[in-house]
Amino acid sequence: xTAEQIIQQILFFISAALTLGSxxxxxATRKLIQAALWLIVSLFGVAVLYALLDASFLVVVQVVxxxxxxxxxxxxxxxxxxxxxxxxxxxxxxxxxxxxLVGLATFGGLTFLVSSWTGFGAAAAPIPAxxxxxxxxxxxxxxxxxxxxxxxxxxxxxxxxxxIGAIYVAYNRx
Amino acid sequence: xxxxxxxxxxxxxxxxxxxxxxxxxxxxxAILMGIELMLNAVNINLVSFWRYGSPAEMSGQVFAIxxxxxxxxxxxxGLALVISVYRRRxxxxxxxxxxMKW
Amino acid sequence: xxxDYMAIAVFVFFSTAIAVTAILxxxxxxxxxxxxVKSEPxxxxxxPIGPGxxxxxxxxxxxxxxxxLFDIEVVFFLPWAVSFRKLGLFGLIEMxxxxxxxxxxxxxxxxxxxxxxx
Lengths: 174, 102, 118
Hints:
The complex is a heterotrimer. By secondary structure, chain A is mostly helical.
């Protein structure tokens, strides 16, 4: 193993611990605004994982869209719906033990399923020598007619529906 | 070298944590946060399969971008609904939003 | 490949380190004398009016929603713009359809008055 591979593994463990630890804090913290801040840390850990996977465009998208927009939307929603900052009462419902069991069963089941698959321990495929600009390839794939042009246009319809829906629902009709 | 299994187990764990959040939290906004964690787990899976499977094609990244768009749309409408319900009923607790149940 | 991110890693490390050091030093060496006046919410030195945790108007949320959806639009724009020369006229028409559909939503928001602040 070369030094770079060891550094990669160390980075993986750090970002995995960051992601999972702050994800646990998101579901366990009593104060909702702190849960939103932990969510930002978790999303940042996922961005580091994308960097380890050589998906540099997705790193930027993760930081700009997820942390810059979605997490901010969560913080706004928390501030809009709290009469005071103290969250009174229990934050988990009565059947949270059952929920924890379902979560553990899902984790066990998924791990069992993927570990029985033959490609489980696969090493990364080498990046083809010709790829100089992955973002350009991505753009070509998005707009080429034999690839993903239809999902691309449908995405704009989805965004339109979300925009109109969100304004219609949240806007104060006097 | 990081084997594919590490990413798969990590995303399974992240998905399960998000699922627990969705099932166990009382606050509707916290439930949406759990859904975000689950969508991120799915995205890690997609990108790692792209990287370990066929990095020459861009399918995995395109899927991931579509998931980003779906997540943004879901969060915008979901939080708008929560805010709207809060303004009428003064509650964000999911169990107390039962106007359609009788 | 990974070393391309070195600058960002250094930036993240130093910004976190400076923030943590500043808070730690202040917490360790600063005197802590709590009083009624000190724990009031700060309103530019005036006597505070009302509670410090008032509910925000919903306009902030509307602006954030508009921002998030046009932010996603940029995510689709950027790869298209990078490979624009290769895509040619067809890509241009595709993008005009994309923008056209989203402009409907923009005009809806405009007409609804979601863009005005009053």
